[in-house]
Structure formats: structure tokens, C-alpha cells
Amino acid sequence: MGSAPSPCNVRDICRAQAQRPDGPASVLAIGTANPPNCVLQQDLPDFYFRATNSDHLTALKDKFTRLCKACLLLHLSYTYDDLIFRRRSHILTRCMLHAAQKLGVQKRYLHHTEALLSAHPELLDRSSPSLDARLGIAKAAVPELAARACRAAIADWGRPAADVTHLVVTTNSGAHIPGVDFQLVPLLGLRPTVRRTMLYLNGCSAGAAALRLAKDLAEGARGARVLVVCAELTLLLFAAPQEGCFQTLVHQGLFGDGAGAVVVGADPVRPAERALFEIVSAAQTIVPGSEGAITMHLTERGYGGNISTRDVPVLIGGSVERCLSDAFGQLGGVAAEWNDLFWDVHPGSSAILDKVDAVLKLEPHKLAASRRVLSEYGNMFGATVIFVLDELRRRMESGEEEGAPEWGVMLAFGPGLTVETMVLHRSPAELQETGYASGLTA
């Protein structure tokens, strides 16, 4: 048997193990994945009402159809209930053409199909307990979806999966022990000694929160490589339509399923590794007086809770500039004009993006990546900001991102209301490849 270290050697051992990298944590690779079942927004009313055996609710289906066609489900600055909808039905007709020109959800990917719903009638009956069935489906589906995104990120990284030292997994779509993190180890071929962290129920800010943790881990030890994955299914939010319950229709028209994965590490080894974005700082802020703005809890029939479509954009609009000023103020030497940055804003809805646009007075193209992801995939909870980051990378490499800014921001909004703010910087090697000269002072 080996002998324990003597007390006089403990400090030397700790000092030797505490080697920290010289640079900030960086995004080294990105991967995304979606279920194969793609539903176009124009086909959603027929799919949804047919799959839930609700075609007899003709008035409700007509209402949902008009909303989907006009993309107004995502223009959520109104408070919708049946009475207000009836009073404003003439406004819907007048605004359809204008609203359809706004980028809303045009399609999304869903794990649940008509066949799956038919096999689980308890998911369609609001009076029937269905939590066990929902969690059982998620237990099998979430790890597989997460693994697909992770494999894409590892392939993008170019190093073996066994080189991953830390695994951070987050989901709102499950509640199991062992969790998705445990299942991913054999699925991906990770080492059994990989250090795992599992985060549940962080809402739409989950992906950014996981990246914040990954930054701390990567900067804490030289050579650490952190695989982050956020995988989400809407199955726990799924419910059949019901008169007087408009929020159910909002959920069906807004959310989609997907997984995003990122490899994070400091001091990338060139040419084996390529730093895409340096994570310069990461912060989390609770907006005062926002406790009831976004709430979620498990019930016998899936998730209960509330998303205040009226209050959330207002709360974000009232806090976003302060969060940004605090984030850049802590960096000291960086002077930022909002239009000189690139933007990864969680597209919770088009109303949220419109509010950020208006408050920060952004140029029209600044939130193009967020709007495109919302259009192509819907709101995928915490995974969405990873999709936006991948879209930004694509736009920069193709020359579509105007000016190819050097500095940028990731913003995500979660329960509470909680704001996650991350300052990003394109790595010097990436800037050299594009020939971009910074417009900011640092």
C-alpha cells in the first residue's frame, strides 16, 4: 500500500497542482443536434390538433391557425386571453401582413410525433397523471440527443473524447439519478474519471449558466477541457388545447427541441486546437421584483408555472443596459459602443429581441443570428444560445456578419428573472484569419 503524504509536503503538493493557465477560457468547438421530426409553423395547427384529437375545437384551432400564420405568437408584448383576443380580432386581421414580415418561428424540431402521442394517451388527457410517462420518455431521449450534439462538438474540436477532463450537463427535461451526465460517459467514450456536474431546472438561462461554470473550471487548472451540453425536449410542457388556456397555445407555438454542446478550455494548443471565442467575463444578476415573472415546477401532468409574456420583455428592457455596463465596467480597459459588438441574445421570443433592440438602439442586422435561430428552431430553452453562437461563427466565417466585430456579448434570461451576461472576444488567431482590425480600445 502507498503511504499518505506527510504534513510538511501537503503545501508543496497543492502548489504543484494549482498550475493555472495563462489565458482566459475559450470556446474551442461547437456542436448542435435536433430530433428528425421537423414541423413547419404553417403545418403546426393541423399537426397539433390532429395529434391531440382536438379537431372538434374548431374555434380554438382557427384562432391558433391565424396566430401561427401571422407569427403573432412570438410578438408577445400583448396580454392574451380569450376576452382580449375577441376584442382585438380585427387588429389581428389588419396586422397579419406586417407581423408576418417579422422573423418569428417558421419551423421547429420535435421529439414527440403523432405515433408517440398515440402510444401515450395519458399525455393528451389533462385529468390523467402523466409525469411518469413523460419522464420515462425523456430518460431515454435526452441522453441520445445530448450525445449527438457532443459528438458534433468533439468532431469539431478534433481531439479524442478521452481528452475531456470535465463534463457539465444541463437540462430542464428530466429528473433522474443517475442523470444524463452519467449516461453520456459510455455513450461518448469519456474516461470514467471525468469530473461531472449535472444542472437541472435552470430554464432558458441554463446554457449560459453551464458555460459560466465551464469558464471557472477551465481557468482553474492547466490542461482542463470542459465539455458542456444542454439538451431540451418540450415534452414536459406539452398539453392538449383547452378553451380559456391560451398559454398552452403559446408554448406549442414557441418552443422546440434541441441540444447544443461546447468544448471549453484555456491556452489552446495550436494547431491541434482552435479558439473561436474567448470568454472574458461571466456574470449573473437577479432582476429585483421579478420572482413571479418566470416560474416552473413539476406536477402530475408535467410542468406547471407561468411565463408572464407581458412582464418579461419589460423587465429585460429595464435591466439589460445596467447588466452590460456592469460587465464592461469590470474590464476596465475596454470601451464599448453597443453597435460595435456582435450579439448572442437568447431569442426567448421576438418581443424580447425587439425590446433589446429598442433599448440598446441596435442596428437592424445586430440580432440577425438570434432571429435566424428563432425562425429555424424556435425557443429551445438553454440550448438556444449555443445555436446562436454557432450561427455567429458561421456568419463570421462566411463574411455575413457585418464588420466582423472583435468583441461581443452573450445574454440569456431565465427564471426569476435571472440575467446571464457573458463578454466574448474573438481570439487573436481568428482575427488574423479574417484580417479584422478592432474598432474598440482595449
Automatic annotation (TrEMBL):
<feature type="domain" description="Chalcone/stilbene synthase N-terminal">
    <location>
        <begin position="99"/>
        <end position="268"/>
    </location>
</feature>
<dbReference type="Pfam" id="PF00195">
    <property type="entry name" value="Chal_sti_synt_N"/>
</dbReference>
<keyword id="KW-0808">Transferase</keyword>
<feature type="domain" description="Chalcone/stilbene synthase N-terminal">
    <location>
        <begin position="17"/>
        <end position="72"/>
    </location>
</feature>
<dbReference type="InterPro" id="IPR001099">
    <property type="entry name" value="Chalcone/stilbene_synt_N"/>
</dbReference>
<dbReference type="GO" id="GO:0010208">
    <property type="term" value="P:pollen wall assembly"/>
</dbReference>
<dbReference type="GO" id="GO:0016747">
    <property type="term" value="F:acyltransferase activity, transferring groups other than amino-acyl groups"/>
</dbReference>
<dbReference type="InterPro" id="IPR016039">
    <property type="entry name" value="Thiolase-like"/>
</dbReference>
<feature type="active site" description="Acyl-thioester intermediate">
    <location>
        <position position="204"/>
    </location>
</feature>
<dbReference type="InterPro" id="IPR012328">
    <property type="entry name" value="Chalcone/stilbene_synt_C"/>
</dbReference>
<protein>
    <recommendedName>
        <fullName>Chalcone synthase</fullName>
    </recommendedName>
</protein>
<comment type="similarity">
    <text>Belongs to the thiolase-like superfamily. Chalcone/stilbene synthases family.</text>
</comment>
<dbReference type="InterPro" id="IPR011141">
    <property type="entry name" value="Polyketide_synthase_type-III"/>
</dbReference>
<dbReference type="Pfam" id="PF02797">
    <property type="entry name" value="Chal_sti_synt_C"/>
</dbReference>
<dbReference type="GO" id="GO:0030639">
    <property type="term" value="P:polyketide biosynthetic process"/>
</dbReference>
<keyword id="KW-0012">Acyltransferase</keyword>
<feature type="domain" description="Chalcone/stilbene synthase C-terminal">
    <location>
        <begin position="278"/>
        <end position="425"/>
    </location>
</feature>
